[in-house]
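Re: [ENG-882] Designed sequences occasionally contain unexpected residues at chain ends

Forwarding the minimal case from QA. Structure tokens:
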């Protein structure tokens, strides 16, 4: 790591960065005692097990085992290498990092992301200039105005225009001395089929810059202004842009969403702009792809209430149905919902009246009507019931199919009271006895309960004896005991290789304290060991000298007994083979260990 970034700069970043501030931009954290807790961004959960310690400057999830320091979080959450994570934090806290220590290859690798982001920002500025200052952009501006978008919204979202022609953006970057091969990696241009030259990807389209929560321009969307196809064109996957992990408008929506505990999710750029135009700023849009599990995880860290907004046409209904499965798996907390009207629904499906999409509904009816419709939007279970009835009808055969449709979703509900209320609702709606529906879903519910019961917490799955884990936890949380650990050579008796390596690293770190655990993590370089350190450091336990010495005495005694048994077994094998040379070495070794144990005797 020192090869990439000087150690003094890493230390400056550690001292400046606050892990709670950084993580709270992604995870909705609540203070609990000395720590903060929230829903883990790395796996699906309904009960918060993700813990952040401001004192130790580390995080750990007791559900999936993810853990580490502020660098580890950015690396895992944003898919960054360590140098990129460090530079991201350095930019955030205005810390200058020199590049003179980097080799040419390292400079190339680390600089690619920054290079692509710079190219995207230059392209955004170019498209904006074409919209606002070029005569070729006047029809585009007229189109946006006709769609009811104000100058303020156009500026706020940095809308632009990609002019007609095959080489406008090519000429722009060529004049600025940017290699076209690098521009190609950004997705703004494409190679010609004959491999001789390039052509612009976006032509005669409204340009929608896609900006992440760090205000970086990561990609673009482009929309035609007539009936040409494809209507929308999006940037391809690049090292800085992933459709499944990006949402349009999130950088502007996150604060308002956080404040209102609600976010609206729409499918189109213009729908999103219209919502913001009407003051509904807690809204985001997917980017030419269906809602993904990553989207749901991302949003559910910000807010507890998600409202999916769909057109009333058949395509909108299909989109809503496709997203249901994602929500079953990733977000829905069935202890809340449309059955409990005094609480906010966790996830609601808003299908607008016939003939409307969000854009047309807001322009015709206004924001007040839209929000009123949202308050009456059904929760997922109610939506599924009504959609299934609309599909199958209420004939005898239809009712059978409705129950079949709802059987698995109802079995997935892990709250018995909520499940009972939903079953009652379904029974009343289709005119079937509750016990018949319950009988149908009981098998599925039993399977889920068995699966849940079989789950083990990550700490229980950590290999190594309980005493070995306690020794490492003690070394992390009570560093004044480290001289005794060295004196009695405690690490020698640890069998688990990861725990032994961690114990050695703690001793080598010299002066590890509770507040330096995050610094220790930076030098480990092993994800599994980072998780172990985070887990053991986060365990709340009271340590005092006498208790620690008793733990060391017990551990060393057990280790010596185990070692002596192993040597005796080896001696027996040597005797059976009549291997006098090996036997002599083992007896001599056994005598040395006995003398050392006598010197190290603990009361």
């Amino acid at each position: 790591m020192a090869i990439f970034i000087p150690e003094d700069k890493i230390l400056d970043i550690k001292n400046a960065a606050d892990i709670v501030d950084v993580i709270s931009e992604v995870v909705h954290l609540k203070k609990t005692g000395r720590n903060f807790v929230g829903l883990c961004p790395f796996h699906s959960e309904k009960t918060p097990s993700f813990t952040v310690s401001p004192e130790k400057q580390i995080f750990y999830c007791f559900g999936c085992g993810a853990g580490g320091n502020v660098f580890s979080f950015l690396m895992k959450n944003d898919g960054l290498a360590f140098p990129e994570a460090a530079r991201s934090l350095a930019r955030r806290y205005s810390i200058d990092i020199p590049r003179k220590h980097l080799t040419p290859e390292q400079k190339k690798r680390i600089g690619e992301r920054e290079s692509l982001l710079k190219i995207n920002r230059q392209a955004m500025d170019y498209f904006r200039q074409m919209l606002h200052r070029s005569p070729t952009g006047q029809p585009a501006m007229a189109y946006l105005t006709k769609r009811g978008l104000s100058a303020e919204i156009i500026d706020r979202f940095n809308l632009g225009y990609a002019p007609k022609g095959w080489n406008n953006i090519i000429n722009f970057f060529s004049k600025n001395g940017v290699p076209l091969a690098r521009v190609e990696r950004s997705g703004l241009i494409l190679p010609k089929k004959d491999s001789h030259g390039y052509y612009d990807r976006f032509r005669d389209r409204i340009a929608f810059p896609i900006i992440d929560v760090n205000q970086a321009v990561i990609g673009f969307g482009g929309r035609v202004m007539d009936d040409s196809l494809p209507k929308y064109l999006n940037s391809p996957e690049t090292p800085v842009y992933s459709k499944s992990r990006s949402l349009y408008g999130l950088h502007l929506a996150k604060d308002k969403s956080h404040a209102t505990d609600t976010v609206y999710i729409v499918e189109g750029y213009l729908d999103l702009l219209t919502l913001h135009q009407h003051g509904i700023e807690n809204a985001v849009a997917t980017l030419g792809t269906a809602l993904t599990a990553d989207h749901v995880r991302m949003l559910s860290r910000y807010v507890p209430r998600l409202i999916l907004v769909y057109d009333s046409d058949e395509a909108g209904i299909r989109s809503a149905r496709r997203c249901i499965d994602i929500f079953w798996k990733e977000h829905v907390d069935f202890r809340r919902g449309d059955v409990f009207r005094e609480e906010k629904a966790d996830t609601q499906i808003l299908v607008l009246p016939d003939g409307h999409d969000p854009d047309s509904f807001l322009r015709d009816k206004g924001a007040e009507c839209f929000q009123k419709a949202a308050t009456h939007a059904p929760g997922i279970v109610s939506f599924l019931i009504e959609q299934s009835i609309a599909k199958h009808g209420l004939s005898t055969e239809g009712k059978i199919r409705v129950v079949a449709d709802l059987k698995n979703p109802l079995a997935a509900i892990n709250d018995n009271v909520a499940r009972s209320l939903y079953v009652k609702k379904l029974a009343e709606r289709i005119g079937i006895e509750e016990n018949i529906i319950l009988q149908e879903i009981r098998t599925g519910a039993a399977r889920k309960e068995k699966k849940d019961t079989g789950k083990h917490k990550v700490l229980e799955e950590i290999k190594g004896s309980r005493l070995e884990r306690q020794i490492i936890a003690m070394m992390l949380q009570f560093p004044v005991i480290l001289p005794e650990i060295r004196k009695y050579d405690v690490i020698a008796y640890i069998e688990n290789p990861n725990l032994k390596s961690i114990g050695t690293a703690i001793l080598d770190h010299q002066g590890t304290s509770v507040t330096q655990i995050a610094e220790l993590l930076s030098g480990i370089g092993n994800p599994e060991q980072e998780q172990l350190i985070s887990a053991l450091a986060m365990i709340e336990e009271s340590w005092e000298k006498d208790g620690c010495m008793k733990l060391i005495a017990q551990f060393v005694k057990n280790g010596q007994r185990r070692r002596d048994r192993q040597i005796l077994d080896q001696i027996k094998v040597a005797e059976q083979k009549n291997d006098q040379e090996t036997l002599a070495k083992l007896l001599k070794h056994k005598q040395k260990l006995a003398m050392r144990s006598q010197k190290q005797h603990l009361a």
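QA comment: On inspection the terminal residues look reasonable. The CA atoms of residues 222 and 233 lie 5 Å apart. Proposing we downgrade this to a documentation issue.
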